[in-house]
Design goal:
The structure holds 2 protein chains of 2 kinds. Chain A is α+β, with helices and mostly antiparallel strands. Chain A has helices at 50-58, 100-109, 115-128, 144-156, 174-191, 202-208, 226-231, 236-241; strands at residues 9-18, 27-35, 39-43, 65-70, 73-74, 85-88, 162-166, 194-199, 211-216, 219-224, 246-256, 259-264, 269-274, 283-288, 307-316, 320-327, 330-338, 351-354, 361-365. In chain A, 23% of the residues lie in helices and 34% in strands. Chain A is elongated, with a radius of gyration of 24 Å. Chain B is mostly helical. In chain B, 68% of the residues lie in helices and 2% in strands. Chain B has 26 helices and 2 strands. Chain B has a two-stranded antiparallel sheet with strand order 1-2. In chain B, a hairpin with a 2-residue loop joins strand 1 and strand 2. The chains are: A alpha+beta, B mainly alpha. Chain A binds chain B through residues 58-60, 79-87, 89-91, 93, 95-97, 106-107, 110-111, 154-155, 158, 164, and chain B through 422, 424-425, 427-436, 438-439, 442-443, 446-447.
């Protein structure tokens, strides 16, 4: 969490529902509390309701049910232009008929700020995004990355306490995107602004956010800091959606405290952490990250269960090796190993034995 | 190269089509506005003779001018071209049309003044065969072709073919006037009437021409030493010139109509003799070219400048009302949900699919004093029965009906531009703190300006040349310049003036287009996407 963040709720969604047609809910029972200064990302596949949530917060959509509060005040009935929320749009939405400086002065002008003060603030905002010399240009004369910076500066120039970003980096190429990810987080933390960021790119979500809310089917599936989200997904949707993941299906055989034994559908037995399974005999889907799979017996517990695997494909990716295995009837089982001097390169066709620490393998809902 | 040729071949049909059906007619129309070869074509000899005349003094033209006029006019009358010339000159000076028409009827009488005494002197002059024998011979082929070409230009008809007559070089030399008149007669009789020249009695003009020749003492003495065919008859006539009229053709013309002695008639003819004239253009701006220079027309004859101004002002009013009415509709079209928008779009397009004449006539039903609108207003009590609104047969009617008719031309380009403005701009403006109005006015409206530009150009240019609607609902106060152009094309047949008016209209539109380009920039006009 950034400096200056307090635990007091700044943005609150309370049992918010949204329906466009009066029949199906796009957002179902959303509850979310954000402290001041937090960088929160709403992550999810398209149609999961994340953009709708953002639009409700900005005031462009009204909640069908529930309450949205900003700084403790319900903003359901406040029109967008009075909410004082900065927003960066997917296609930047820079006004094409105005120069960059005019674009930035626009929010100050509608607030009836004096000319001198306007100029001062515009200059400062442009300098902040290193676009100081571009004030006289028109948006069409800038590159995508530059437009992105200007859009950011415009959303910040009137010093809002909350900034919303709707997939702002979607149109940029990979390198620029990574650079901008860093700049945006840096700026947000430096200025201590509360940020709600919407994206469907999980890498972006993990690298930028203080907390990530994973959306699916109109609900938040999990709301957690990036490391927790990646390492401890609470259900199989989150496990699948965040990062690469191997899944095996089976039935819970035995639960002992914080470990359990799962019998896979092919008859093999493995160890796992029971996350949302509670009783023996329940069907489960176990999830294991490719980089946590071991085929060196020395690094496993002595009593750990192991599985037989056949190497199908070896892919050299530079920093890592990616090997595809057939494990318990699953042809898409991936393991990743670091390209270290002593690392073994597996040859397709060989039989190996794999295992993992029980805490890396999570038994989730089926 | 090959590729270019192939591309050229592909566009060639369209190119040829456009050139033939569009560019050529426009150019020929533009040319008509200055073209004025009718005078020189119809009375070529007169025009040449008149060039010697100094119109600045009060002195009437020389006798030669009248003689040429007689020869020219006689054949023009045979070809029925003299009334056309009269009509043309009447545009510049009223009265000339009837002068040419009545004179045309009495040309025979003038000729008979000489024919009768000549036939008395020698009865041979009554015989067509005698005349043929006297006039024909050899060596005059060049002279024949010269007269043939003049005749073809004058009548606008094909004069080629066998004449069965060649003037003798001796006679052409001896009796130039007679040779001209007789050759004209021979050409007309042989080619236009299909007769044998030798069997036909010559035109009265031939006798008049012989009278002209006989006035010259040199000719008299040459006749006395002449020995060719018809020498005796000619010598008889030469010996008895005292029996011929003692006056010349000037007196003969003035006797028929005293206007032929009027200075300004001749001044007008001389003024309009050149092949090009600024006369139509001057006319089109209510000026006139007089022998004394360019002058404004009298106040009660000035209509074109008023009409041009009215056309421009009303086209602007119509364009403005189209913007006012069309903008909200286009906005709705672009922003309503798909289903509603398509219904609205059909309503916008529906008038398009109705005949223009039907729509205009429908406005007639609505707007007249006993019409639907007035009846409703009276029934509602907004208007007294006694003073019903006059909504038609004036400028109001034209503006109302034309705004309605041209509205789709404003809505469609506006719509296609508005459709491309993403809603995120307005959202962005609102998120930055702008009210709905500010967001619209500062962000949405400027981006829709190219649509307004495109719609305005379309509507304005269509309006400025509109014809049917002003004609039907415009009355006298609501007609446009195009109605006047149509009148000159189809009723008064003054195509030159119509062409001049049309050219001015074209120049005005191009000028406005240029101004628009300078002020707004034509790149800022979008018809879509």
């Amino acid at each position: 969490m950034a400096d200056g963040a307090s635990n007091e709720a700044f943005v609150e969604f309370e049992r918010v529902q949204k329906s466009y047609d009066g029949e199906s809910l796009v957002v179902k029972d959303l509850n979310l509390t954000m402290p001041k200064g937090e960088f929160l990302t709403m992550l999810g596949p398209s149609g999961s309701g994340k953009t709708t949530c953002l639009m409700m917060l900005a005031g462009f959509e009204t909640a069908t049910h529930g309450d949205i509060r900003l700084g403790g005040v319900s903003i359901n009935d406040i029109p967008p232009h009075k909410r004082g929320i900065g927003m960066v749009f997917q296609n930047y939405a820079l006004f094409p008929h105005m120069t960059i400086a005019e674009n930035l002065a626009f929010p100050l002008e509608v607030r009836k700020m004096g000319k001198a003060e306007q100029e001062e603030k515009v200059k400062r905002a442009l300098d902040m995004v290193e676009m100081g010399s571009f004030g006289g240009r028109r948006p069409a004369q800038l590159s995508g990355g530059q437009q992105q910076r200007v859009a950011l500066a415009r959303a910040l120039v009137f010093e809002p306490e909350l900034v919303l970003m709707d997939e702002p980096l979607g149109a940029l190429d990979k390198q620029l995107r990574e650079k901008m990810q860093f700049e945006i987080t840096h700026l947000a933390h430096q200025l201590g602004i509360t940020t709600v960021y919407v994206t469907h790119d999980q890498t972006e979500a993990l690298t930028m956010s203080d907390r990530v809310a994973v959306f699916d089917d109109g609900r938040i599936q999990q709301l957690a800091p990036p490391d927790k989200l990646y390492e401890e997904p609470e259900n199989s949707f989150v496990a699948q959606f965040i990062g690469e993941n191997n899944t095996l299906e089976g039935v819970v055989k035995e639960i002992k405290g914080n470990t359990c034994v799962v019998q896979l559908d092919g008859g093999e037995v493995i160890d796992a952490v029971p996350v949302n399974v509670s009783e023996v005999g329940e069907r489960t889907r176990v999830s294991i990250r490719p980089e946590r799979v071991e085929y060196n017996r020395d690094r496993l517990h002595e009593d750990a269960h192991t599985l037989k695997a056949e190497v199908l494909e070896f892919i050299y990716m530079g920093d890592i090796f990616r090997t595809r295995l057939r494990v318990a009837g699953n042809d898409e089982f991936i393991i990743k190993t670091r390209n270290a001097p002593d690392q073994v390169r597996l040859t397709p066709g060989t039989e190996i034995e794999i295992g993992w620490l029980a805490e890396d393998c999570r038994a989730l809902d089926a | 190269m090959r590729q270019k040729m192939r591309a050229l071949m592909l566009v060639a049909p369209l190119l040829i089509f456009v050139v033939v059906t569009f560019i050529v007619p426009i150019l020929s129309m533009l040319f008509r506005s200055v073209e004025n070869d009718i005078v020189a074509n119809t009375i070529p000899g007169t025009v040449v003779a008149l060039s010697e005349w100094d119109g600045s003094t009060s002195e009437p033209p020389h006798e030669d001018v009248y003689r040429n006029l007689y020869i020219d006019l006689f054949k023009a009358e045979e070809a029925k071209q003299h009334t056309r010339l009269g009509t043309r000159l009447n545009y510049e000076k009223t009265g000339l049309s009837s002068l040419f028409r009545t004179t045309g009827r009495s040309l025979d009488d003038i000729g008979e003044l000489w024919q009768d005494p000549l036939e008395d002197i020698d009865p041979n002059f009554e015989e067509g065969s005698f005349w043929y024998e006297m006039m024909s011979g050899s060596g005059g082929e060049g002279f024949l072709e010269q007269r043939r070409a003049l005749m073809a230009t004058m009548s606008g008809e094909d004069m080629s073919g066998e004449v069965g007559f060649v003037p003798s070089a001796e006679i052409v030399d001896l009796l130039p006037w007679t040779a001209s008149a007789y050759t004209d007669f021979a050409l007309w009789a042989a080619i236009r009437d299909g007769d044998t020249v030798a069997e036909e009695d010559p035109w009265e003009s031939v006798y008049g021409a012989l009278g002209m020749d006989l006035t010259s003492p040199e000719t008299i003495s040459a006749i006395n030493s002449y020995g060719g065919p018809g020498a005796s008859a000619l010598q008889a006539a030469a010996a008895n010139i005292d029996q011929l009229p003692s006056f010349g053709f000037r007196e003969a013309f003035v006797e028929e109509d005293e206007d032929w002695g009027a200075h300004d008639v001749w001044a007008t003819i001389k003024l309009y003799s050149p092949n090009m004239t600024p006369g139509y253009f001057l006319n089109a701006v209510d000026m006139t070219l007089t022998p004394d220079g360019v002058e404004s027309k009298p106040d009660n004859q000035q209509i074109y400048t008023t009409l041009f101004t009215r056309t421009l002002v009303m086209a602007l009013i119509i364009t403005a009302s189209c913007i006012l009415l069309g903008y909200p509709v286009a906005w709705l079209l672009a922003n309503l949900p798909m289903r509603t928008a398509s219904i609205l779009m059909i309503l916008v397009l529906l008038p398009f699919w109705t005949s223009l004449l039907v729509r205009t006539s429908a406005w007639k039903v609505l707007l007249q004093q006993q019409g639907v609108i007035n009846e409703i207003l009276v029934w509602l009590g907004f208007v007294n029965d006694a003073d019903r609104l006059i909504l038609m047969n004036n400028a109001t009617g034209t503006v109302i009906a034309m705004t309605h008719i041209l509205l789709p031309f404003m809505i469609l380009p506006l719509y296609s531009v508005m459709k491309t403005i993403p809603p995120s701009y307005q959202r962005a403006a609102k998120s930055l703190g702008a009210t709905n109005w500010t967001a619209f006015w500062r962000v949405y409206f400027p981006q829709s300006v190219p649509g307004i530009g495109a719609g305005s150009i379309l509507v304005f240019i269509l309006a400025i040349g509109y014809y049917i609607t002003p004609e039907i609902v415009g009355g006298t106060d609501g007609v446009f310049i195009s109605n006047r152009i149509a009148y000159h094309i189809s009723s008064s047949l003054n195509w030159g003036l119509a062409a001049a008016l049309g050219t001015i209209l074209l120049v005005v539109v191009l000028g406005l287009y240029w101004c628009y380009d300078k002020i707004v920039g034509i790149d800022n006009v979008k018809l879509g996407g």
